[in-house]
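User: hey, got a sec? need Transcriptional regulator folded
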Amino acid sequence: MGSLLREKIIDILRSYGGSYVPQSYIHRAVNASKSRVSEILGELEKEGLISRRSIGRSRVIYVYPGISEREPKERMRKIRIGIVFSSEYLFLPSFLKQIKAKGYEAEIIIFREGLKATKALAEGAVDAAISPLPGQLYLYPMYRTYSIVLNGLSGGFKVLSLGEPGPLYSSMISTMDFIRNAILSRKELEAEGTSYYRSPEEILKLKSRKGFVVTWHPIYIELERRGAKPVLDSSSLEIRFCCTLALSNALGKRAKLKLSKSYLRALRDFERDPGKGIEHYSSLTGIDASILKSATSDYRIVDPLDPSSIDEIVESFAPRIPEGNIYREAVDREALELLQ
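Assistant: Yep! Here you go:
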């Protein structure tokens, strides 16, 4: 049994020469105990076939090039997709329809914070994530277990005044955080420092009438209903990105390319008919369809980004360390060719 399991693990690893994959994926793929899988991986590490490193309680495997050059079998037919609670992904119903036609079953997992969705992808808890691009770039050098499809929507945010002067409230390491930094750098607001919220519920429970909030649709809709006043929005701030699709290396190149094509087609479908998937998306997220209708005019398809366009984002949180080219490695090159 032990030798059979070892061969099964090696067979899987042969598919990922030169790539990083979450160790949790190997556990799931072979359907064996974590301890036994870890023991075998430890043996392979001693033999020089792989290396492993720990990030918190998670482990990432690097498979050395040359173990095999073959394309991995498509083992995953059920794809777990992480998204953030937001009105942004109105193209999701079209995306799900297209990947179903390709033989995949999708499970949607909704996160209350963008960075948690990206971390779940990096550690193998989900297979794909549509989450804020700044967070995807921020975590990439640490994990390197995924690649990013550089296209998506922009807009869908507002900066609101709660009443009196005070701090600027923002989510952390997100598009909102990038906007926060841009606002303060350009002196668009006289805010008294920054305070971070960890979920939509946290900012909606805020009792203070002091300060400003930068947040996304539908959160700002509810804040406006409660009396907050818009002071800046996407028409006054040139922000060319929000969330992008990131795909786990564990999917393999063939599956990643199929999912990238489906994602880009879904974006084009949204551009042609933004309101088409509202009812379906409402049922997935619990956001009222009447609220989602207003999002169709708040979000727009962006021109495809290129690797150089990520430099501005990286400069906002990592101006020197690590060296900037590491972030360009995160770009899914095959998906990039589809955009050109």
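Quick note: Residues 312 and 319 are 9 Å apart (CA to CA). Let me know if you need anything else on Transcriptional regulator.
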